[in-house]
Sequence to fold (905 residues):
Amino acid sequence: MMIETVKTVLKELNCDTWQISDLKTEGWEFYFIKNRLDQNRVRNTDHITLTVFMKNADGTQIGSASAEIRQGSIADEIRDTVKTLMERAQLIQNPVYSLHSPKKAEETEKDEADVRTAAEAYLHLLKDIHQTAEADLNSTEIFVEKNTEHLLNSNGIDVTQTWLSSMIETVINARNEKHEIELLRQMRSGTCNEEELKKQIEDTMQYGLDRLKAQKTPNLNRFPVVFRGESAKAIAGWFVERTDAAMIYRKMSSWKKDAAYAENISGDRLTLKALKNLSGSADNRMYDAEGAAMKDLTLIENGIVKNFWGSRMFASYIGENDSFIVSNYEIDGGSESEESIQKEPYLEAVDFSDFQADSLTGDFFGEIRLAYYHDGRNVIPVSGGSVSGNLNDLMGEMTMSAQRQRMNNALIPSFFRLKDVTVTGSEG
Amino acid sequence: MKAPFSPYLNEISDGIRSLIGCLSKDYEYVSIHAADSFGLNIRISTHAKSVSDRTLTSERGFAVRVMKDGLYSEYSFNQFDPGHVEETYRQIKEALDAQLFMLKQCGTEIFETPAIPEEETVFSGEKETEQLPETADTQSIISFFKELCEKGMAMSEHLIDCTITGQSTHISKLFMSTKKDLRQSYVYSEATIIPVASKDGRNTYAYEGVSGLCGPELFKKLEEHLPAAVKTAEEMLGAERMEPGEYEIITSPEVSGLIAHEAFGHGVEMDMFVKNRALGKEYIGKRVGSDLVTMHEGALCADNTSSYFFDDEGVMAGDVTEINHGILETGICDTLSALRLGTKPTGNGKRQNFEHKAYTRMTNTLFDSGNDRLEDMIASVSYGWLLEGMESGMEDPKHWGIQCIISCGREIKDGKLTGRIAAPIIMTGYVPDLLSNISMVSNDRGVFGNGYCGKGYKEFVKTADGGPYLKTKARLG
Fold:
């Protein structure tokens, strides 16, 4: 109803280039302290976002302005909003580009689970976690939502898609007679995969027990580090960001098509693909936010950059006219195994306060909450201190595990190994 | 002028009152938090320009909170017709009953909490502003930003981009319960300059920002920060990597603010006390820092991006002394956590927006000033670093670890700045050690409201923090 009003107003005001997104969400949330329910929540929302585009007189420049069409708005208010957007869009000047045109996405197998079924599975999962006097759940938050998105634009795109998305955040305590520690995990997925999540939570409990025994991280200075879990995903995500058309156009990534991403790649040569669909991902959509059809696309093959991806504006500026905004991706396995990395001492980092890899500078850093120091003879849990370095400097010698794991929207090697990482210890 | 309260919220307030009446038949406690906040977000860079009404806090919607048999439940929605209150009532009741049915089937135990005690309160407050984001002269702002962007680019041959952003949000919030009717309206704004430099394949950037409890008129203040922003981006191209180790440091007010926020801001959020997730619970009344450390937290502590009349649970704003001359005095608390802990809420119950749960959250978190001069502080360092610019931080209240990502450090040798720069820097350490080692505190103070804060890795809200220059010791990498 509101969308029809918006379209009528756009026509009346002779606005001929526009894009509308109507996102309806039904969400169920549960918050637990220990095993008791602290609070339950329901979300039922409908957000309509309108973007209008205005060209300058000679058609070489285009500007856009966007706003939410607020629920409860009457036709006159919608008219005022559209007028304001048209005025604002005229003030913005970017090189001209066109909106996406309709292109049917390939049908993919869909997970038909609904919010209630998925929510119930999470409640069962919590009951099924093996808790002991030494390791248990401190608190848990569960979020399940079903999204229905209607995308339209003035070029004729008119598609509707639905997807289920869920997330469990859990804080795990482990304790001995002297003290208690905690580890936090945030796991996103499509629906609730009880077996997979149970394993991740129980593995984290084991990490917690190891952290109780952790010594201070030694000063290792430049040292090989194996990154697992969220830090591995942050490194993988850095490669995805470096192939973003916005980074290329803005000269913030110097990567070029058909050229290697590093001058000398003596480590594993990375292969990265965007995926339309990844089983278990919370981001399985047929169309991106601008209505472009998702597809599988090789971005890097054996270390050679093959394609860029991105929003319509930036992708068209660099000549990628059939592009889209990547949701899911995979990186092929590398040459390493759990045995091969034992060949020399290394630090195996499994939990950070907040590991970050900066897409612009390549700098990465994180405070170590739990790592294992493999000194050649013993494996010693350590905590405190930090790792840092620059991926531009270290990616040439990077190696990866052959084995892969899925972390929500990414199917990536289970670990990434970087040489010469700066390890600042926590001992005096 | 006063920032006017939302006409939309005024118009539907009788409907909200009726909805509370309907729900009160079924629940022991009912309140509704309603928001109608307009934003303006302009981003001008060398390569792309955009304008939208979306900011972190722009929203229109409602959060209903009810309690029955000791369980608090919420329903967030954004479609409300005051002419059809009964329909909304039925939707809320059916949705929450469906959840309760499932919870009962699963044998879920409840964390029982008493009803929120309330006193009859009617309040209406509108804060001063010169301009409103919804009626600001967008053309002038865009022209000004373009000019700044071009000026910045002309200042250095190494710049590949200069992004100017400006955001302003006109907040209107209504909190209504059986006994309360609270209405507030205010405008806050923030703006940044981010020059990006590149040389020999190395990219760096700098960041300068302004923020305040005011309208888009604030954006003009950006101009005076442009030369410093470009200079820092250029200097960073020649920055070295930090040699890992423990050093004497002087933190700039921005970095001091980050420490305040990460070290004891999160550490005394009392919803973490309920979950036994914060070491601070055991240290109330005990020494956690040197005698020079005094820290305040509250929406009334400063006029910046998180300075309101009342929080998202209908509790009036406060000013809490968390640390007094090194002694941890108290924490900050949302309403439900206060009931569970047997204490009073402090006006720190905040939601990311109407779609999110309320948690204990920070507002303005600030170290008090001291008596030292910056020149004397630098002169007192035999070897160390002056740390400037904050990028991010992460809390660890359970273990009092701290992670701060800092833009750059300037080397100090024999009491003088040498001109040598290291970047970026990760500062880690044990919070009580960091605060106990504070030996000098400058006589000035800065407040910074450009950042936002997450609870773990989500629930982002606007916060401000700050303090004076602090001299202490820390581990840098």
